[in-house]
Design goal:
Blueprint lengths: L1 E4 L8 E4 L10 E10 L1 H8 L14 E9 L11 E3 L10 H4 L23 E4 L2 H4 L1 E2 L6 H21 L7 E5 L3 H12 L3 E5 L3 H9 L4 E3 L3 H9 L3 E6 L4 H9 L1 E9 L14 H6 L3 E4 L8 H10 L8 E5 L4 H7 L8 E4 L2
Parallel strand pairs: 8-9, 8-11, 9-10, 11-12, 12-13, 14-15
Antiparallel strand pairs: 1-2, 3-4, 3-6, 3-15, 4-5, 5-7
Helix pairs in contact: 4-5
């Protein structure tokens, strides 16, 4: 098969012919139909993820067609169109037994701990536990846009923060996951304030349902616009500044959801814990979403309440993945880029 291979961190990916993946007895081999290019892939390419060993193939926001299943797989068959969370469970540890596969103690992450979907084929583990069927009415490109960004934003707002109609929601960072959060929160009836330094991204957030955009004096502006602070705030970027601003802009008993990865020199923000205590704020970590929550999200997509396909800004071929991953460091994307092999 062809794959975009990383031979060294931070160096251009090379398009190579490599061995086809082998199907495990409990796994599946999937033909990649579409896969998102995500800032998490950039972190991996930069060497921020110690689980990656070289050479490596990234990519984790995939939709594909099953070509082969192992002898122990009973719930899926060749021809099924599927997606998968970026965090695949083992099925044995306590979190997995409780249905929380996204925090599996021995998780497998395509594109990180194993080779991923920047390729024509990808092997996925524990198929019966981890795979999710893609509805016929959802195109493969749009299914790939669910990726880790849309589904993580869905989990942040609906599973963790439990956003309610009429609440104020602040979204810090209007890349793919931030714009997904804007769309999801607005569809839930919340009043959304988008935060970004790029006016084009703020305009896109307004088109997706934000009632206001903020680019400077972030905390003071949000407190003024909301009459006291946001009920829910998401750091959708992952930086010291956006994390601290997200916590600081909350009203009393507000909920902060950390969605963006804090890695490299941004790994240790000084969170104002005195404010967290005195205002009884909730700080919520979000590590993807368990398979058991996909049904609610997919029903919302099928009903038209949310339309993740609107987040897709462009599609590229496998030969364009390397350049696209590298450009993530410049925040050059407007919305979601999807690779179609």
């Amino acid at each position: 098969m062809r794959a975009a291979v990383m031979q060294s961190f931070g160096s251009p990916l090379s398009l190579e012919r490599v061995d086809d993946p082998v199907c495990a007895p409990d796994g599946a081999v999937v033909k990649v139909l579409a896969t998102g290019v995500c800032r998490s892939d950039w972190h991996g390419w930069m060497g921020h993820d110690p689980s990656i060993t070289l050479p490596h193939v990234g990519g984790h926001e995939l939709c594909g067609e099953i070509l082969e299943v192992g002898s122990e797989v009973h719930g899926f068959a060749p021809g099924d169109r599927v997606t998968v969370p970026f965090c695949c469970g083992c099925g044995v540890c306590e979190p997995c037994r409780l249905g929380e596969t996204q925090v599996c103690e021995r998780d497998v992450q395509p594109g990180f701990t194993i080779w991923g979907s920047f390729a024509e084929l990808v092997a996925l583990p524990k198929a019966d536990l981890n795979l999710v069927r893609v509805p016929a009415e959802l195109s493969s490109v749009h299914a790939a846009s669910l990726g880790c960004r849309f589904m993580t934003a869905w989990a942040a707002l609906h599973v963790h923060a439990r956003v309610r109609a009429g609440e104020w929601v602040a979204v810090h960072g209007c890349g793919g996951v931030g714009l997904a959060a804007v769309m999801i929160a607005a569809a839930a009836g919340a009043q959304v304030i988008a935060v970004d330094i790029d006016e084009r991204k703020l305009q896109r957030a307004r088109e997706l349902g934000a009632v206001a955009g903020v680019s400077g004096q972030v905390v003071a502006s949000i407190v003024e616009l909301t009459g006291g602070g946001a009920h829910v705030s998401l750091d959708a970027l992952g930086s010291v500044t956006t994390c601290v601003n997200s916590v600081s802009c909350l009203r009393r008993r507000g909920r902060h959801a950390q969605v963006g990865l804090l890695l490299g020199d941004q790994a240790a923000p000084q969170v104002p814990m005195g404010r967290v205590i005195s205002r009884e704020l909730q700080v919520l970590g979000v590590h993807g979403m368990a398979v058991r929550h996909y049904d609610g999200m997919l029903r919302a997509v099928a009903s038209g309440a949310v339309q993740p396909g609107e987040l897709v800004a462009k599609t590229i071929g496998l030969d364009g993945v390397g350049e696209e991953v590298a450009s993530m460091g410049r925040f050059a994307q407007d919305g979601v880029t999807v690779m179609v092999p």
